[in-house]
Amino acid sequence: MADWYETIDDERRAFIERQHMFFVATSPDVLDGDAWPNLSPKGRTLVRVLGPNRVGWLDYPGSGNETAKHSAANGKITLMFCSFDATAGIVRLYGRGRAVALDDPEFAVHAEVFRDDAHPFVRQAFIVDVEKVQTSCGYAVPRYEYVDDRQTLDLWCERKV
Prior knowledge:
The protein is α+β, with helices and mostly antiparallel strands. It contains four helices and eight strands; from the N terminus they run E-H-E-E-E-E-H-E-E-H-E-H. The longest helix is centred in the N-terminal third of the chain and has 9 residues, at 10-18.
């Protein structure tokens, strides 16, 4: 039931930007026998579609920053968006990603898009050049209701500062 696309069209863009969370998967360099692939749920900030083959998001502290470490090693990254509402669906984006400092000129080009997500605790942005887009049914994904974002991360960051 999977379909493949070369770009993020308007339908996929709308789907991506409706989701309250997404998952990001990366893998370390295959020569590093002690490292493991990483799969992280992300919320708080949404993925922004920056073009037909580019997306980005703002990243917050709170983990070991494996996404940045792995993407620096080989760039490979997969993002997955699941619909948890009445209409089932999954979108995966496969591409090459990189962490971008907030004062980097590459981020400055897109900074306005992230204005509503700006927060004092953002540690970096991620930019992904999308090579393939895949959709699948998502019929086995249960329905959940979005209630609100957690405030726990803000409280944790405030204690650290």
